[in-house]
UniProtKB/TrEMBL annotation:
Name by which UniProt lists this protein: 3-hydroxybutyryl-CoA dehydrogenase
Domain 3-hydroxyacyl-CoA dehydrogenase NAD binding: 10-188
Organism: Pleurotus ostreatus
Site (Important for catalytic activity): 145
Gene Ontology biological-process entries: fatty acid metabolic process
Length: 290
């Protein structure tokens, strides 16, 4: 996919956590666009860039890319200084928000908040949402849902807000394709397609454990070997870096409150695990010991 096709010549990425650095990497390496990377924590930015270096080096060592490709990709990623802040995101055609996963509740909020609502909130208070200007501003907001780990996962879920213009939607789609991803489209409903399927799936696995139907190992092995899932649901639930069982519970609660659909009703065991402050990998104890 050429750069002209998606017509996005430069992007900004807000947040240098796992998602943000992954998005910066695929944008710089695959779509070959300059990236301005901003995180309010300089330490996080340093950590994120070191991770990008590590992944590029691995790709070179495995013969997937040349060292010149790695160097060019790295050079395309520029850090926006802490002092400049968001104002440093100049002359970009698209800004991707991926603020750090050190705010787990944000994940919960974003699992249920509508892209339409985010688009509406982009319109300044003194501009009517129904005016041409209001529609133009809100029309630029689109949902691009990358998956963790971004460099490995082949999917991007595309979500159109009510206000998103067809042009913006098409450009976002072409950009994701240029990043080497397959794109699926979901309506702007709580959780989109991905979490509407994943959250009940994880919850059912926890309920199986709660009811004593099988051991945690057998639940995970059943899905891994019986259905070829790369990870079992009880492994996956704490896989998201600093995200853990607490975030999973928060997502399910928000989806449940937002939809009143019983498929999102969190299992008692999940609630008790969180009561016990056993969050998974991030603090060493979840369904497994880490
Ligand atoms: N970042 C970048 N690359 C990573 C990585 C990370 N955090 N973790 C693993 N990888 C890479 C490895 O470097 C390795 O790359 P190479 O092939 O180049 O060597 C490759 O992934 C495979 O890794 P491993 O051999 O170590 O282990 P694996 O075969 O078990 O794969 C996995 C690891 C890719 C994470 C795999 O277990 C998997 O696909 N798990 C499921 C992930 C998943 O479901 N993600 C979606 C989560 S839901 C979500 O993101 C959001 C949502 O809202 C729904």
């Amino acid at each position: 996919m050429s750069i002209v096709a998606h017509n996005i010549r430069k992007i900004g990425v807000m947040g240098a956590g796992q998602m943000g650095t992954g998005i910066a990497l695929v944008s710089a390496l695959r779509a070959k666009v300059p990236v301005l990377l901003y995180d309010r924590s300089p330490e996080q930015t340093t950590k994120g860039l070191a991770f990008v270096d590590k992944l590029l080096e691995k790709d070179v060592n495995k013969g997937r890319i040349q060292s010149i490709d790695a160097k060019e990709a790295k050079d395309r990623i520029q850090v926006v200084g802490h002092e400049e802040g968001i104002k440093g995101m100049r002359d970009v055609d698209m800004v991707i928000e991926a603020v750090s996963e050190s705010l787990p509740l944000k994940q919960a909020i974003f699992a249920s908040i509508s892209i339409t609502k985010i688009a509406a909130s982009a319109v300044p208070k003194d501009v009517s949402a129904a005016s041409e200007e209001g529609k133009k501003i809100a029309g630029r907001v689109v949902g691009l849902h990358f998956f963790n780990p971004v460099p490995v996962m082949k999917l991007v879920e595309l979500i159109s807000a009510l206000q998103t213009t067809p042009d913006v939607l098409n450009r976002a789609r072409s950009f994701a394709v240029a990043c080497g991803k397959e794109v699926t489209t979901s309506k702007d409903v709580p959780g989109f397609v991905s979490n509407a399927l994943l959250m009940p799936f994880i919850n059912e696995a926890i309920m199986c454990l709660e009811k004593g139907i099988a051991t945690k190992e057998d639940i995970d092995t059943t899905l891994k070997l019986g259905m070829n899932h790369p990870m079992g649901p009880l492994q996956l639930v704490v896989f998201f870096g600093s995200i853990g069982l607490d975030t999973c519970l928060a997502i399910q609660q928000t989806l449940y409150e937002g939809t009143r659909d019983s498929k999102y009703r969190p299992s008692i065991l999940l609630e008790r695990m969180v009561d016990a402050q056993w969050y998974g990998k991030k603090n060493g104890k979840g369904f497994y010991e880490y």
